[in-house]
Amino acid sequence: MMLNSIYYYLVERVMNMGQRVPVTIISGYLGAGKTTLILHLLKCKEGKRVGIIVNDLAAVNVDEKMIQRSPDFSKADQLVALTHGSIGGQLQQQLIDQTYRLAASGTVDLILVESSGIVQPDMAAKAIARGTTTDGEKLATVCRLDTNVTVVDGFRVLHQFLPGDGAYNQDFTQSNQLIINQIEFCDVLLFNKTDLLTAEQQTYLEKFVRQLQPRAVFLETKFAIVPVSKVINTHLFDEKHELEAYDRSDDLSHFKEHHDLKFGIDSFVYRRRRPFNPMRFDAWLDQWPPAITRCKGVMWVITQPERVFTISQSGRAMDIIPSGYWIASMKDWEIKKIFTVRQNLRQIWDPRFGDRMIELVFIGQNMNRNKIIHDLDQCLMREDEVIDVRQDPFRLRHSNAHSK
């Protein structure tokens, strides 16, 4: 009973002081340099007491042992290992509880969270920014999500993004989507191992990544050596704009097209108010232009007029997933209610089709934009066309995804 009283006293003290502990989440694919960054930050902590939470899918947390063996990890620092799962999934509640315990203890000045290599960074961010402990305490009362850092292996990603004949390294195929998501959701984008790249390759990589992530602070480094002030207590994270914007990432209405003449890096949005013939579009996917490195957006097919399909492609990996229903397919009273909540809905509402549309952004190098647009237009339904719904390759059977 006495321990509980002391604990809640400390929580109240932290709240009254108005000094919530800053939390930096470090994401990145396997081998990108996340633990190397933490070791560097420990070396440069300047008397700060650091709380560290390390996530590993395996039962044995190798990163935990590396950090514990560091001469810069002192008795004043605290380390929590979350193993045998993902903090974006089954360990998310443990992440919230352990972060709350560290922040409320009054014994750490900052918290570093190292995600496992396969965690979607927005899931970890939501847990820290909006989490509630097992006891019903809001995490935001004792700490604040300060910075989302994504560490990227510059050498690996360069070769992932280079256009070619489509014969991408198979080791990249499964990781493409995850690395793209990690790049698209962050406040600081740390490109590690850039010493392995030429100056021209570094410039190309930055210009290309800027198409995917125009907002984040971009840092190039080797051995993850960066100024501490760039990744800790930056106040860069904005929950209202960042999380809500990511939740609406399929809305491309504000996307700006870019073109770089020197490197041939191009981007454009394909918008149409007619649905695809699913068979012709599926056939076009088999002829996917290798110059397209990234595509995402929403798709409307004639055979499923109520369903929204989300497309997400990077490299040779592509997912086409049913992600909800068009508002126009709802009942009249439901549509009217949504109109009162979503102020921008009128701007995209078509008198005939409502919100149904095809809206896809394409990013790549030396793309033949006119040919891509022409070929996609050939996939659209024609006025006098009749098709058999049973032939739709995107019909749901035993799976919720269509992969090419």
UniProtKB/TrEMBL annotation:
Domain CobW C-terminal: 265-380
Alphabetical UniProt keywords: Chaperone, Hydrolase, Nucleotide-binding
Catalytic activity: GTP + H2O = GDP + phosphate + H(+)
Pfam families: cobW, CobW_C
Entry keyword annotation includes Chaperone: yes
Domain of life assignment: Bacteria
CDD domains: CobW-like
InterPro entries linked to this entry: CobW-likC_sf (IPR036627), CobW-like_C (IPR011629), CobW/HypB/UreG_nucleotide-bd (IPR003495), P-loop_NTPase (IPR027417), Zn_Chap_cDPG_Synth (IPR051927)
Name of this protein: CobW family GTP-binding protein
Family: Belongs to the SIMIBI class G3E GTPase family. ZNG1 subfamily.
Entries under PANTHER family matching the protein: COBW DOMAIN-CONTAINING PROTEIN DDB_G0274527, ZINC-REGULATED GTPASE METALLOPROTEIN ACTIVATOR 1
